[in-house]
Sequence to fold (333 residues):
Amino acid sequence: MIESAVSQGIRQMKEDPERAARRMVDLGKQFSHNRFQDMIFSVIQELLDNDRSSYYDMLHNLLKNTDEKAIQKFGVNFGYMGWTYGASLIREKEKACGHCIPWAVTFRYDPAGKKGLTAAQLEDLIGQGQKLGIYVYYIREMGASGGHTLLEVFERCRDCAFVAFSHSGCLTAAQIEILKLCKNTVISLPVDDPESMLTASLLRDQKIFFALHYLYDETVDSSMLPGLVESTIASESAFLFAIARDGTPRDLVGKVTEQCYKSRLSQTVPTVCIDFYGDDRKISKAICEHPYLFEIDEEGCILNEDGTKGPLFDPEKPLSATLAEVMPSYPCA
Fold:
């Protein structure tokens, strides 16, 4: 029923974006099952009351440049499977097992590495994660491109939502062809790579859902950020992710998270700025009542909250057993 309503809403938005967008948000609020969703839809309602909101331009670009089936599939998988059905299942599992469960999982993937997880192991872990209620997965590509093997995994895991952060701004023809089939996947390109703007043009032509991202730490000059946002606007991407490098002080992450929040409320640019770690913790706190994330790096190590390397992940052990060992107790103190 939800997929049908979303599909109809997308078609209506092509004819009358303003009215249809408001109607979709009103409908979404009716389907809200928790305080987080109700808050999100209330904020969006307030934003869309502004007839001059830049988000109408963003919607126009998204509908023009993206396959509507991809918008529908990724949106339902992320918003419903991740934030509603999955979150409800996670809360049930947490109460039963007594430890926190992450709402999303991040994998760092290096196909040339010898210590990290293979594509087959990732697919197995995704299958285990779904049974726990985890339907959202972030893949950070490290080093050379992994070709199209991982994209084929995404296509097979059709109930999940994937955001794949490419290490390079250049994609192969084979990757682009498979991305056309992966309706549940958003591919993100590094905004500071000169190749990304050309690739973004190719993705728009093929109506592939894409985003842009950049890495930051204490050495990144804040004066660079307006230029990155301008590049994002030029690419007509709906999303710009800010990703903290390992070791970035938590207070700096907090500042960037706040900058992204203010940018979203200002409605002055037709793109949604997201702080990857900061905003993910806020989402986790809202839907799972804890801020704890789970990430495995390219060497197979579980990362600590501060980004330092923790214990080595054992792919032979059930994911549930590993989470029981490394995640804090539930409910949190």
User: Anything to note?
Assistant: The beta strands are 104-109, 136-141, 161-165, 185-190, 210-216, 239-244, 272-275, 294-296, 301-303, 309-312.
